[in-house]
Structure formats: structure tokens, C-alpha cells
Amino acid sequence: MTVSLKRRIVPSALSANFAQLSRDINLIQKAGAESVQIDVMDGHFVPNITVGPVVIEALRKETSIFLDVHLMIENPLKYVEVFARAGSNLLTLHFEACSNAKEAIQVVKKLGVQVGMAIRPKTQADVLFPLLDQLDYALVMTVEPGFGGQVFMPEMLEKVKALRARLDKSGKPCELQVDGGINLKTARSSAEAGATSLVAGSAVFGAKDPAQAFKEIQKLVQ
Predict the structure, then answer these.
(1) Rounded to whole angstroms, what are the CA distances from 114 to 15, 88, 92, 135?
(2) Less Cβ crowding at N or C end of the chain, within 10 Å?
(3) What positions carry a catalytic annotation?
(4) Is the four-CA dihedral 54, 37, 140, 145 of positive or negative sign?
(5) What are all long-range contacts of 33-36, with beta carbons under 8 Å and residues at least 24 apart?
(6) Pseudo-torsion of CA 55, 59, 61, 67, nearest 10°?
(7) How far is the C-alpha of 162 from the C-alpha of 76, rounded, in Å?
(8) In sequence order, what are the residues at sequence separation of 6 or more whose Cβ sits closer than 8 angstroms to the Cβ of residue 20?
């Protein structure tokens, strides 16, 4: 059974101008973006530090866009409640940071927000198989998490294909997301492999005209 899901580009704010974050997000929303990803990094789970819940709260006051918050942090359950209260619409945790992934999913669900589970490049896709019926998003990292502008790892598409096959067989309406190195070329191959939610950072916000860049990639995957 194949589930029909709309393919969408999700701009990553990691590549936006942090001094003009709400401006940049509103710009791509006007261009047609339905959601934006906010990468939260703690300097421990990944070697970089970005933003906390205070930024999510500030953005929520400035934009109505769906806030896809990717928690690349240790001990995520310690912080999910504050991120949910701040205005997140989706909280994606890393499988590798959860001692009990099923329990973590239920904790997030009880907060009234959507829940996602991400895997790093070294983690096999099958760890997500038992969780798909509980998830809103399954995220395959196509670069090592931590920094924007990295080169796409094409071998990760085998994980996308495996998860797509599993989702189609079960009929579960879970979004299959890819994140890292997404541009005009890799967006096409990711969509063909079965991804429905494609996170693009530098390919959008690093372009001279981010709105136009978003439209071009979105048109391609549609």
C-alpha cells in the first residue's frame, strides 16, 4: 500500500541571517514554504552550539510558520517540555540520544506537538522500523550533524529507500525527511528514493535570492 504524501522543501534557518532571522523566515514563507527547520545544537551531541527555547519563543511571536525543531542535543527529554511551550510544532529527537526511544516518543506526544526521530549516518535504518507507527517524522541525516554546507552522502539514500518501502507496506502516514547537503541535484535523487520532506539550508538561504531558490527546488521535487 503506497501512501500519497506531498513532497515539500523545508528551509533550514541554520543558513539564514541570525541577525534577521524572522525577516528571512517570513521571506521564505511568503515564497510558499510551509515550514522551517530550527537546528538546536548543544556542543556535546554535535560539535556546534546554536539556539535555545528563547529563540523559538521569539520567532513564534513573529511568524505563523510551522516550526520544525531538530534537537541535536544530549538528554533531549530534559528539554522537550520547554521547547514545546516555546511554540515548536514538531520536535525531532535523535535515536542515539534516547535511552528508550519509544518512551521518548510518548513523552513528546503528551506535550501536544508532533514528534520525529532522527538517525545519524552511522546508524542503520532498521532501528526506526519499530517506531514508524508512532512517529510523525522519520529523519535520515545525509551528512554528519553539526554544521551547514556539508556535502551530501549519497549512500544514505539506501536508508531512505528502506524506510520508504517499510512505510508503503504499512500504510502509515509518516513523513520521511532527509537533512544535509540538499540542493537541486540531491533533492531530485532524495525525492526519487522516497523522501517527502527535504531540509535545505545553504541552497536556499545561501542563494542570492532565497525566495527564488526555494521556489526552484520546491518545483523540482513536486
Answers:
(1) 24, 9, 8, 8
(2) N
(3) 39, 179
(4) negative
(5) 33/9, 33/65, 33/214, 33/218, 34/8, 34/65, 34/66, 35/8, 35/10, 35/65, 35/66, 35/67, 35/68, 35/89, 35/90, 36/10, 36/11, 36/12, 36/65, 36/66, 36/67, 36/68
(6) -110
(7) 26
(8) none
DSSP 8-state secondary structure symbol assigned to residue 140: E
* Amino acid at residue number 215: K
Alpha helix locations (H) across 39-92?
53-62, 80-86
Q: Is the overall model pTM greater than 0.85, yes or no?
A: yes
Residues with Cβ within 8 Å of 184's Cβ and at least 6 positions away in sequence, in order, are: 203, 216, 217, 220
Smallest Cα–Cα separation from 98: which of 121, 138, 71, 124?
71
The CA distance from 89 to 96, in Å, is: 22
pLDDT in tens, 111-142: 999 999 999 999 999 999 999 999 999 999 99
The residue assigned the cell 504524501 is 5
